[in-house]
Amino acid sequence: MKILVAVKRVIDYNVQIRVKEDNTGVVTDNVKMSTNPPDDNAIEEAVKIKESGKAKEVVAVTIGEDKAQETVRKALAVGADRGIHVKVEGIIEPLAVSKILLKIVEKEKPDLVFMGKQAIDDDCNQTGQMLAALLNWPQATFASKIEVKEKSLEVTREVDEGLETIETNIPSIVTCDLRLNEPRYASLPNIMKAKKKPLEQINASDLGVDTKPRIEQIKVEEPPKRKAGIKVASVEELVQKLKNEAKVI
Amino acid sequence: MSVLLIAEHNNKEVKPFTLNAITAASQIDQDLHVLVIGHLCESVAKSISEVPNVKKIILVDDAIYENYLAENFTPAVIKNSDNYSHIVCSANTFGKNLMPRIAALLDTSQVSDIIQVISTDTFLRPIYAGNAFATVKSTDTKKCITIRPTSFDPAATSGGSAEIVKVEKGETSDLTKFIKREEVKSDRPELGTARVVISGGRGMGSGDNFKLITAIADKLNAAIGASRAAVDAGYITNDHQVGQTGKVVVPDLYIAVGISGAIQHLAGMKESKIIVAINKDGEAPIFSVADYGLEADLFEALPQFLEELNKLNTIQK
Fold first, then answer.
1. How far apart are alpha carbons B8 and A159 in whole angstroms?
2. Does B176 contact A138 at a Cβ distance shorter than 8 Å?
3. Is the ipTM of this complex over 0.90?
4. A95 vs B108: CB contact, 8 Å cut-off?
């Protein structure tokens, strides 16, 4: 079995986001970048399945500018076997990403495709479901547990009401929740070894996919600020304020 | 131009957030039709037909839709989508799972999680966990949009009488099989719509200590929330999680207890009307969004809080 894992390079989750003064986007220069957190869970799960003997190969793919290769190198350092970087400049929407991934799936013929359920930059939560639609594959979204069976997956999904379990035929798409597993750290020797693992580069333009954005970003602004609150000295004061000032209890 | 809204329901009742989505959808265009897909769900269609903003109900009723699988819902939506300029749904786990599958087959770039309708093609949506707001314009002829329900008021539920049109089911998919659903039943108000929410974080120290929160929630008729850290630690189940990847809540009163206030948590609660933070670390980021901050040990503060509430003659429910 072969597992393809899609990873995205995003602003690190700990960075305080700043909006550009000209309202064209957010500041990314000299800002720490990392792998999108649930994509780390996707890689971890694929590597664990390989370690259990149920998969033979884990391939990590990313789409973006040259620096996006860092995320593939990180995936290789924690156990992926080889990487693919699809090079493209500028904003690329989930629909275009899923069309590029479709081409990669046609070429690589994986049995499973994993990725994070949502990227923490655009917060779209679309790519996995879109790829599943284009391939006419089943989709197991927001997965917090995956069991690999002979011809199917049993996946526990986190939904608003609690948990849901479904069985999907293989091949299948899985989008991963943060609670799926605990991603491992890359050790220094493995980071060094990862530099020798194969990383293929493909130009998006060679795949014949139209990546032109369909959504115009008109402006990006700071959200309205909350006015500063106060500190209260005691529980008694707090309850009085809630009762008589805020009038919410 | 007409809007098609996909209703979320449990085959018996319409889910409350569908009413918020109806408000948003009718701001896009007044000619609003609602698609009810389910099994033995005529009562759902009936109740939505009484919503004044709704002009028509399309009902697709078949056993294959009993468990809302996107693989089966998608062909039914596509089959009924021809006459519509916009297809919309609420941005909760139901809509997040379903809409992109539809959008991809319609070759549309979806606009996710809108918080404001600016015009028929332009919308406001949060990005970066709500740390920036983007105004975006969709150039696709057929638009697929998901709506953040808490940003819109629920539509009125009586006075309307839309016609209900039954249509044939769509193609059946055998790609996915539903196995089970583990719903956490509770008599409390739903987290997403509660007037008061009290949430615990890693500072609670254990699942057992959440009883301190439960006691206050009982008193205030509040829903119980949690930070991701508390859910990850196993103190409480995932359906309580508030934040970027959990639920977004906007209650009148949000009480954060033992929650430091990571960006990802703030994304789910910072639009609340009044925010209270109880934390022993005076430097915790949660205090930067709190209207009332109490720097205290929660294990002392929560019992005192309950005691003070007990002293009040009346408490709003």
1. 13
2. yes
3. yes
4. yes
